[in-house]
Design brief:
The chain has helices spanning 12-21, 74-80, 85-96, 144-152, 232-251, 278-296, 312-319, 322-325, 341-347, 367-382, 424-433, and strands at 4-7, 25-32, 35-43, 53-57, 63-64, 67-72, 106-111, 159-164, 256-260, 301-307, 328-334, 352-357, 387-389, 394-396, 411-414, 419-422, 441-446, 455-459, 465-471, 477-483, 486-492, 496-502. The protein is an alpha/beta fold. It has two domains: 4-62 and 442-502, Golgi alpha-mannosidase II (Immunoglobulin-like), CATH 2.60.40.1180; 68-355 and 369-396, Alpha-Beta Barrel (TIM Barrel), CATH 3.20.20. The strands form four sheets. An eight-stranded parallel barrel has the order 6-7-8-9-10-11-12-13, surrounded by five helices. It has a seven-stranded antiparallel sheet with strand order 3-2-22-19-18-17-5, covered by helices on one side. The protein has a four-stranded mixed sheet with strand order 1-4-20-21, with no helix packed on it. Strand 12, helix 10 and strand 13 (387-389) form a beta-alpha-beta unit. It starts with a strand and ends with a strand.
Length: 503
């Protein structure tokens, strides 16, 4: 398969500079299972025949990249705390420092509890406290704030955004944190019916099944009921809640510059969550959150998301509201939302786009999980995202949550031996994050495809090309990339991550 991409140069001087670069060789970083981050050199040739991807001159880049981010979770902080101070410092330096491995510059904060909190909580547990007199971030001061400060030691310029998993339970029609009952919560099963309300739909027991067939649609049946109470007093109080959270974190030296109203509104969860209809989503963001942010925190941007649904028409319905568009700066996608991204970006080219959560797997911590994350980064950057956020950075043992889901992380800690390991996913991430920095332009992209070879080409702010490619087949495969009339052609080892950096 061939794909041709043209590269736009700022001017003739840059073009001449690039032409000189093309005579140079590349440093090749390669990782296979058990043999990571090996370096060698490779030179370009003049022949461009049969290239998987060709990058020519004089075309607009796909996107200018901005930030790599991670999420600050309580269980991550607990896992980090199992290690010695020196080990903690090594990890924090490698993740956050400008001369570390990953060079993370952005953080995601969950307003209230998420599914990787120690337990479920909110910043205001006083029922009916619409004036938010009892609002506080005392719980966060025990875990999230110390975690952030530890990271800021290595990158004081970290920036932050927020999204809740659930409003306080008393702001919801079911009076509880989850959406659906399960053995992991105390919500009565008989309350499950409210998800579809008067529509008469029955909750499919496999609706939230994490593996297996989803019949091509997620969710297979959309909620017909907003779990957030739609009384204007509650909606305004919740909008004010966001602003109080921003203020409270600012007092701790943490400046939040973007908010999203809900994490995964289309996951009907046994852990903290909140189902929203399209109408409820528009109403809250257009009539309450957007205007309140504009008045109290005009410096804070509002994004729509996080969209985890492939029901593109449903997302289009939200994004097309003219009144809402006045307040929106971007959109965030994760999980099944990856399928919606290309369509929405084409329809709203002036907005910014991000991957708000890298998929977290099933607690395997294996090479295949790294390959999946490698392909996700390829997809989101290749389809125009200028930010990419990872989920759990470090987890203990099999990464099990309080509700029984085992997840992957970039770093794994054995709680018995108190030893840590950089996982295959860590190296997959390093192959991107170490070289694609703020200001880099994504200029070429080939999806995974049947050949199992995802490819991404970027150009750094210094004018150097970076080629990132995977080979996920069981045998060695030839990578051929054309760049401005010359060719990078090498054999990639089976199941390998690869990065080529122009010298």
């Amino acid at each position: 398969m061939r794909q041709r991409v043209r590269l736009l140069f700022a001017g003739s001087c840059m073009a001449l500079s690039c032409a000189g670069c093309l005579a140079q060789s590349f440093t090749w970083y390669s990782s296979t299972e058990g043999n990571t981050w090996k370096t060698s050199s490779v030179k370009m040739t003049k022949n461009v025949a049969a290239a998987l991807l060709t990058v020519d001159e004089n075309v607009k880049p796909i996107v200018e990249f901005k930030d790599w981010g991670i999420t600050f979770n309580e269980l991550d902080w607990d896992a980090l705390g199992l290690l010695t101070r020196d080990e903690q410092d090594e990890i924090l330096k490698n993740v956050f420092s400008s001369d570390g491995d990953l060079r993370i510059t952005r953080g995601r904060i969950s307003m209230n509890a998420n599914d990787y909190a120690r337990s479920w909580y909110s910043c205001d547990e006083v029922e009916g406290d619409l004036e938010l007199r009892y609002f506080n971030i005392d719980r966060d001061k025990q875990t999230i704030i110390p975690f952030i400060r530890a990271a800021q030691k290595y990158n004081p310029d970290l920036t932050f955004w927020i999204s809740p998993w659930s409003p306080p339970g008393w702001m919801k029609i079911n009076g509880d944190y989850p959406v659906l009952s399960s053995r992991f919560n105390n919500m009565p099963e008989k309350m499950n019916y409210i998800l579809y309300g008067n529509a008469g739909g029955q909750v499919d027991p496999d609706e939230m099944k994490l593996t297996g067939e989803r019949k091509g649609k997620f969710p297979r049946q959309l909620a017909t009921t907003d779990y957030m109470i739609q009384d204007p007093r509650y909606l305004q109080s919740y909008a004010n809640y966001f602003c109080k959270f921003i203020d409270a974190y600012k007092e701790q030296g943490v400046n939040i510059d973007m908010v999203i109203y809900q994490n995964e509104a289309y996951s009907y969860t046994p852990y903290p969550g909140c189902a929203w209809t399209a109408e409820g989503t528009v109403r809250f963001n257009r009539d309450y959150l957007g205007p309140t942010l504009k008045k109290q925190h005009p410096e804070v941007k509002l994004y729509l998301g996080t969209f985890n649904t492939n029901r593109v028409d449903y997302v289009q319905k939200i994004a097309s509201d003219k009144g809402l568009q006045e307040y929106v700066s971007g959109m965030a996608f994760q999980w099944e939302g990856r399928e919606s991204l290309p369509v929405l970006r084409e329809e709203h080219p002036d907005w910014s786009y991000m991957c708000s959560e890298s998929e977290c797997g099933w607690g395997s911590f294996d090479w295949g999980a790294g390959e999946h994350t490698f392909e996700l980064m390829n997809h989101y950057l290749g389809n125009g995202c200028n930010e990419y956020t990872f989920w759990n950075t470090i987890l203990a043992d099999k990464g099990e949550s309080p509700w029984g889901w085992k997840q992957n992380a970039l770093i794994q800690v054995d709680s018995k031996t108190r030893k840590f390991t950089y996982t295959p996913e860590y190296y997959a991430v390093k192959h991107y994050c170490h070289f694609i920095r703020s200001g880099a332009r994504i200029v070429g992209y080939k999806a995974l495809g049947e050949d199992k070879m995802p490819v991404l080409v970027s150009r750094t702010s210094q004018g150097k090309y970076v080629v990132i490619a995977g080979n996920f087949k069981d045998e060695t495969s030839r990578l051929t990339v054309g760049i401005a009339g010359k060719t990078l052609s090498v054999d990639l080892a089976a199941h390998s991550y690869n990065t080529f950096v122009m010298k």
